[in-house]
C-alpha cells in the first residue's frame, strides 16, 4: 500500500469520529440551547477512535503516512469546527 493511499484511508476512518465530536461539542450545544450533554466517556472513546488510524500508521513504520494523516486530521478538525459554527444573522 502506498503512503498516500494509507494516509487517505486513515483520514477517511478518522473523519466520522471527528464530525461526531463536533456534533456533540458541549459548548456549541449549550449556546444553541440544546440539552442532553454527552458523557465524557463517549467523548473519550470518540477521541481514541479518531486517533487510532494515525497510531496505526506509526505502528506500521510509515512515518510519512503518519505525518500526512496528522496534517490532514488538523485540517479536518478545522473544517468540522468551521462548518458547525453558528452564523450570525
How is this fold's topology laid out?
Elements: H1 3-23, H2 26-32, H3 40-59, H4 63-83
Helix pairs in contact: 1-3, 1-4, 3-4
Could you provide a short overview of the structure?
By secondary structure, the protein is an all-alpha fold. 78% of the residues lie in helices and 0% in strands.
- SSE succession: HHHH
In helices, the fraction of residues equals over 70%
Main beta sheet: strand number and arrangement?
A: none
Rounded to the nearest angstrom, the distance between the terminal CA atoms is 48 Å
Class of secondary structure makeup: mainly alpha
β-strand percent reads under 5%
The quaternary state of the protein chains shown equals single chain
What form results from the Cα inertia axes?
elongated
Output the radius of gyration. 15 Å
Instruction: Note the total helix count.
Output: 4
Mean of residue pLDDT?
A: 86
Which residues sit in consecutive blocks of at least 5 with pLDDT less than 50?
none
- Say how many strands there are: 0
Task: Kindly describe this structure.
The chain is elongated. The mean pLDDT is 86. It is mainly alpha-helical and 89 residues long. Helix content is 78%, strand content 0%. It contains four helices and no strands.
Q: Key terms for this structure?
A:
about 90 residues, mainly alpha, elongated
